[in-house]
Amino acid sequence: MKKHIAFLIIICFAISLNSMAQNRIRVNNTPGVDADYSDLQAAIDAASAGDVIYIEGTGIPHSGTYHVNKAYLTLIGPGYFLALNDSTQSNSAPAIISNLYLDETATGAIVMGLKISGNFYVNASSAKVSRNHLNTVLLAQNNAMADLSLFQNYIYGYIAGNSTNNSTAGIYNNIIISNQVCFSNGDKSSLNIYNNIIASSYNTSTGYYIHVQNSSLKNNIMFETAASNDPLVIDPDPSHNNSVAYNIICAVEIQEFPNNVYNTAIEDVVFYNEGGPEGKYVLIDGSPAIGAGNSGNDCGIFGTNTPYVFSGLPPIPHIFESNIPFSGSSSDGLPVHIKAKTQD
Q1: Is the pLDDT of residue 88 over 60?
Q2: Predicted structure pTM score
Q3: Which of helix, strand or coil describes residue 148?
Q4: How far is the C-alpha of 34 from the C-alpha of 55, rounded, in Å?
Q5: Which H or E run contains 102?
Q6: DSSP of 193-227
Q7: SS3 sequence, 235-266?
Q8: pLDDT at position 226, please?
Q9: Which residue, 190, 122, 192, 112, is CA-closest to 152?
Q10: How far apart are CA 339 and CA 273, in angstroms?
Q11: How many Å apart are CA 152 and CA 301, to the nearest integer?
């Protein structure tokens, strides 16, 4: 039955992306499944610029470290938290990768719908990383990285950069449950950090949990998950040239930055104690985040025109319910019933 479901899903993929890719490549690491590849690195090595690699959800990790080293490849998985939300995928298993590198040569790479359980390195320029469940995100490790878009992800770990050259990135509409967001050699980098949930358990007695330079922070909701006598959110050093405005900062912060809302309990902003790992960040009625962002946008992950997408569902058709018998008959054939829908 899994083979039937996988086949139907690929049909949906093919219809929606027929004009986007030179080749469509299936990867499934379940023993005995008839896919193009069972080994992810072999699929990447065989692909060409513009190809789309579909990594099917099996729940079996692609263990090891994988390198995307070609320009304009697309990697698509089914999403994450699939059993927690309604109408996601008929197969609720995620596509899990232990460690993934976007090498400098992977210009324009797209990565979406994956669960990367270890380290995710991004050294490529113009990459788009969206709708993934990520752990440790390491950006621009000693090389220049331009125009990264990191958006609509669920990040449970930390984000760190270390660029000795100029690097730019947009980080927006993510749930970031992190020890720290930090960019070493930050004087050579510029980040736009907009419309995120940033929840930190960082020991702020030793420093700030957002440490960046030449960056803009807007429309975020920021709070601590661990008690601290003196929570310090953003490094206020004026020489770091940061613009910080229109944020909800749920901490007793040294209020160095005007035009932010301070000292608000997170429970008064979002449904923090209910709703699961994603739904808990929906704004409650009367939330101070409603309309508090720049241009009257809401603060948080659902503001602006790229709102967070539950379960990281990719923007392609998906089958969320299926009834496929194991056998048919000569008179009735094989009656297959599926429910599918498109995803923005």
Answers
A1: yes
A2: 0.88
A3: strand
A4: 13
A5: strand 96-102
A6: EES-EEEE---GGGS-SEE-SS-EEES-EEEESS-
A7: CCCHHHCCEEECCEEECCCCCCCCCCEECCCH
A8: 66
A9: 112
A10: 32
A11: 8
